[in-house]
Amino acid sequence: MVTVYLDQCAASYLAKAEAGSEWELIRDKLTVAFSAGRIFCPMPTETLVESSPCETQVRIAIEDFFRSVSNGERFFDIWDLLIDETLHLARPDYVIYPFGAIGAGWGRLDEEARIARESHTVSREKMRQRIEAHTYAPGAANKSPEEIFQSGAKNRSLMFLHDLKKFEADPTTPVSDYELGWLMKGLMRHGLTTVEASQIAEDVRFHRWERIAVNKFDLLLGSRWDHDQLHGQRPNYQANDEIDRWRSAVALCYSDLYVTDGYTADLCRRARVADHTSTLVYSTRQTHEILQFIEGCS
Questions:
Q1: Of 76, 236, 281, 295, which residue is least crowded by CB atoms under 10 Å?
Q2: Would you list the DSSP string of 234-281?
């Protein structure tokens, strides 16, 4: 079965497709293909919060669409998947499944949507402040995207390595004392041992951890993202840009077709993700190509 990842923009077009439009045709073909066991379109986890500002009827339409093409399955987000992929380094038999069930009826829950909307607003504001406060090292504008990637991978790996050594020395270290607290918390939730932490530290030291696909794509797209900003090609970054990057990393690892907005699709192209994955990336403007893909799965 072919897996298709539809971002919020694509999902909205499909859920609200006008009669006789290409998006209605795409929706109908996806529904038929899912019923025939040919195509599977799990809902991105981010859809829950990104749909929270919508009117109730729009949320219901988005939920109904995804249920018609996935039967209530969703993609796990990048953080859950990176935790699992990291644990897999120390536990080769650990099974990674990128999808999980989501309860029916979330589109009708107005109060929950309000809470999610307010929480998302706070998170977006924190991301915005972090983006605005970020400064690049002298000479960063002279670096190629590849050099930015290497620098970012090194910094992230060193933070994680320090955390693992800290855990080895004292497994009772509070999560707040770690640099990548969300990652360490997730690993500890799965019963990380000091022996496993030592094993993973070796994987970090020898660059195997940074080559985990979902991690690599996040870093790869992030380096292009930074290069754009340094050269004024994307000067007004929003918090949603980071969400799009994280979502893209999941799509490029766990789907056969990724449908997203024009900038993100172009970012993937310029980051040369095709050198590392067979996932096709189409923008929402490429409705003809999307239809051809679906028809090819018949």
A1: 236
A2: S-S--HHHHHHHHHHHHHHHH-SEEEE-HHHHHHHHHTTGGGT---EE
